[in-house]
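FAQ: What does a ligand-bound record look like?

Like this one, built around flavin-adenine dinucleotide:
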Amino acid sequence: MNNYDVVIIGYGPCGISCGIYLKRYGFNPVIIGKDLGALEKAHMIENLYGAEKLSGSELAKKGIAQAKEFDIPVITDEVLDIEMDDDMEFNVSCKNDTYHGKAIMLALGKSRNKFYLAKDFEGKGVSYCATCDGFFYRKKKVGLIGNGLFMAHELDVLAKMIPDITVFTNGLKLEVEIPEGVKLNTSKIKEFYGNEKLEGVILDDDSKVEIDGMFIALGSQSGFSLASHLGIELNETDIVVDKDFMTNINGVFAGGDVIGGLLQVSKAISDGAIAATSISKYLKK
Ligand SMILES: Cc1cc2nc3c(=O)[nH]c(=O)nc-3n(C[C@H](O)[C@H](O)[C@H](O)COP(=O)(O)OP(=O)(O)OC[C@H]3O[C@@H](n4cnc5c(N)ncnc54)[C@H](O)[C@@H]3O)c2cc1C
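The answer part, i.e. the structure of the complex:
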């Protein structure tokens, strides 16, 4: 068993920030992630205070390197289960190993499932983040692929700035209501077309729908099954935390995209720092 003060799950901006603050507070955290999270899909980050313009993957790798400079172990593995033991501490089971922590930080992000037909147009009309890119399509015609709560969240963001939106369920049943004025298309999408940029999609019956941009909001939130197994309170889309970023389970904290709100790097970093401060108080009790 690998013993640490805190097991942080997720090495995106929230998990890394939490780890660095905990280390500075004199604790011994480990950070476990399975991939680079949302940043892996971010073509370019331009809105982060003081940071040079760089791709999401580059930013994520810089964060991981920084944590390692603080001598924090950063492990690539997939967490499969978390269990509380008799001492109210936690065992985190991963594919390759098990970790023990007095407290847990869930910085799991939100899973944005890839839509492989769209891969040639990522950053050229296809986006996985309404908050980040919606602004660029203000007076344009956009599509949004998805059928559930995550789609509804992104639609809410887009509808505030874009008048012409079509929701494409891609053959799936619509599981949420969409507001009046938003168009619905339930056909399967066969192809994305365009030259330099996305111009539209071709449906199963070979008809074309012209659009300037397509947002993808498939699937649900990562970590929901992990969290629900532990008995953590969830609302429809997010893990619920109190003002100290603690969940309803003593010793389990959460922050970043997984608790909802503004889905941006700056907020994830801030959540990680504040949660670390709360965890430090919790561990000193
Ligand atoms: C296309 C796109 C463009 C974006 N552009 C911008 C932008 O320009 N500016 C901006 O500020 N933000 C942008 N964002 C949003 C930003 O990337 C996120 O808000 C931020 O990364 C959230 O940080 P996080 O640490 O909460 O989660 P993430 O960065 O998503 O990290 C989640 C971590 O949890 C890990 N994880 C999840 N489940 C498990 C498991 N079972 N086991 C182990 N590890 C697990 C993942 O591997 C990952 O390491 C963009 C997002 C997307 C998708």
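Follow-up question: can I read anything off the structure? Yes, for example: Residues 9-15, 32-35, 37-39, 41-42, 45, 47-48, 56, 78-79, 107-109, 112, 127-129, 132, 222-223, 256-257, 263-266, 268 surround flavin-adenine dinucleotide (CB under 6 Å).
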